[in-house]
């Protein structure tokens, strides 16, 4: 069934125990992923990931995983991403189970009205589906205000507009930015703080964004010589590592859902056109090249590597510039192999 209008919060925060399958789909993949994460909290469950291709290869796997009792006694939710019609047979088997221990959450991109998976989710009483549209203009600004409230920030409309613009319309990037501001200000949901322009000036994605993005983009393009030249210009012992890594994370977060749509059959041109104004025209050749070079699996691996390095730098002393250079060179080599 479709989640009724006005019933989304209840469906996510107080989930119906009889629902076995949740489908979040639509062009706003970052928003779908955010709603799925909120549902995970509402369920009080740990994520147990599966890929759509794994379910396609063995449709019985989904029902087996959902019906299995957790070895450690905790509650699980089976998380399938990216998901599409390839899991429809597995979902049918899930509905045929006499009982299910764990609900299944599927995160998909845009699905056609004729999609077998969509028809299953909308027709069955043990399923809920929700379509997400990419927010624009004031809707996006209101979303930033709401996301800020969730992490303990009071955000004015003016700063919400700035964060929305700097995030390129990507909710995941906007939340990452707001979480960074909240951490800096010591804000929590129970102890909210006012987001001020000075903090955004200091830490915001639009602060020297082009320079920070350049290093990561050179690595992802595999342009080794230019990358080494740029790294050589960084002052020894500089504190650029964290801002560069975060700029690279924003790029990877933008690329991942687009690449997953291409692997489900959408064309590169169609995916890029669907981004509209969220993609600056000068960046189109770059994004097209990156989408053709990096697979979803390799993007996920790159994101994991970058996030791990950021945690290492923040938690213990490292030679930041050397660690950054090593990671970027590794990505550049991987990009060269991917061409």
From TrEMBL:
<keyword id="KW-0235">DNA replication</keyword>
<keyword id="KW-0808">Transferase</keyword>
<keyword id="KW-0239">DNA-directed DNA polymerase</keyword>
<dbReference type="InterPro" id="IPR027417">
    <property type="entry name" value="P-loop_NTPase"/>
</dbReference>
<dbReference type="InterPro" id="IPR008921">
    <property type="entry name" value="DNA_pol3_clamp-load_cplx_C"/>
</dbReference>
<protein>
    <recommendedName>
        <fullName>DNA-directed DNA polymerase</fullName>
        <ecNumber>2.7.7.7</ecNumber>
    </recommendedName>
</protein>
<dbReference type="InterPro" id="IPR005790">
    <property type="entry name" value="DNA_polIII_delta"/>
</dbReference>
<comment type="similarity">
    <text>Belongs to the DNA polymerase HolA subunit family.</text>
</comment>
<keyword id="KW-0548">Nucleotidyltransferase</keyword>
